Amino acid sequence: MTKFTDLNLDPKVLKAVVETGYDTPTPIQAGAIAPALEGRDVLGIAQTGTGKTAAFTLPMITLLGRGRARARMPRSLVLAPTRELAAQVAENFDTYAKYTKLTKALLIGGTSFKDQDKLIDKGVDVLIATPGRLLDHLERGKLILTDVKIMVIDEADRMLDMGFIPDIEEIFKRTPFTRQTLFFSATMAPEIERITNTFLSNPAKIEVARAATTNVNIKQGVVMFKGSAKLKEASEKRELLRKLIDAEGPACTNAIIFCNRKSDVDIVAKSLNKYGYDAAPIHGDLEQSHRTRTLEGFRDNKLRFLVASDVAARGLDIPAVTHVFNFDVPSHAEDYVHRIGRTGRAGRSGVAIMICAPRDVKNLEDVERLVKETIPRLDNPLDNGGAMAPAPAEATETEQRPKRSRSRGRKAEPREEEPKVEEAKAAPAPQPEPKTEETPRAQQPREDRNREDRNRGGRGRGNDRRDNGPRIVGMGDDTPAFIAKSFEERAKG
Hints:
This protein is an alpha/beta fold. It is 38% helix and 13% strand.
């Protein structure tokens, strides 16, 4: 059996490895370290949790043992898809390079450009970065990659999922053609294969497991779930999650719970805390300092449940995770491999349980097609045909609102009952009033005419009348006598 002492590593690196408690490399480490030390390009394909980080960190530290970095010109470059994974690589570098004089800089979002510029200006041997932040420094003219001798791409398939492939290609073009490239991925999509054919030169291919396979140490299962009603489905699904956790009992010492949407990450974490489960969310919208504190609490066993999105938890190396719960079936089948790879690491056993709603059946079929196995179906712990009794305390926001009518958000008023047919028949029909002979308007007294105008909607003589018939032109019957007399005299004359 191969030992680390058989791999021609620097004695200072071996001393640090021994202090971590490891003496036997994993298959990916044993296969990748030797060709990397020879200066060859390496293409490593392995499941998550198999030790890929040490597979490139150990030979990189050994190769960089001789030489010195210049200002703004790093000697090696490690690209990771997320801040957490980049920080994890930096921790591994600190662990294995503590007996050397190599320097590093970590370029990730959420931290000060000014502090990062100070480190770059001093010159660093190892530059660990996310693609976005690295391009920001390049565009600001603060970084030059022409002295990069070793370039590492970690979690390449996740880079593809997050849309970083154009950025990776741009970064590759800014590095020397003579660089050594170490390329690692858990799956081998066609686009990843195109990148390797373009930028790697006759690589040593190490494939310790078939691409997109799951760890045999992980016990898998899926619960088929159907809510009793659309408005209750979300709360019932959270109830099912709690039942699944309870069913595992003391064996579930800690767990990562994956959700597809960041909004669900917050909701599920809040719901678990409400019912006494120690949980905290982690996703891309949270501040980096908050995410770091949450991860440290989970690693130190101060936090039992970590509710996460795929971006935040991809590639995290937390060896003692006993369970993974997929609250949603992942939209991308490859993510299932990475999610459940958070448990069963370093030879340990693990449990991965998934909840599948009717709308997720197609995604479940894609997952099973990718891993080429049927995930065992588990019984619903509530055992009532899939539909669960509603949790009163978990009423949805829609259920808590008062019912409203369609009329501009006003509260609905009780409708009046239609009169009964019998009562309608019993009511006497209105009798027509007897017709009376009407007096011509011109002969009516003025008070009567004004009263009639008011009844029709007008306000009496001298005011505007509404719908009172044709207007009377002239003075009518009220012509003053002195005016009439003047007309009579003219007529006689």
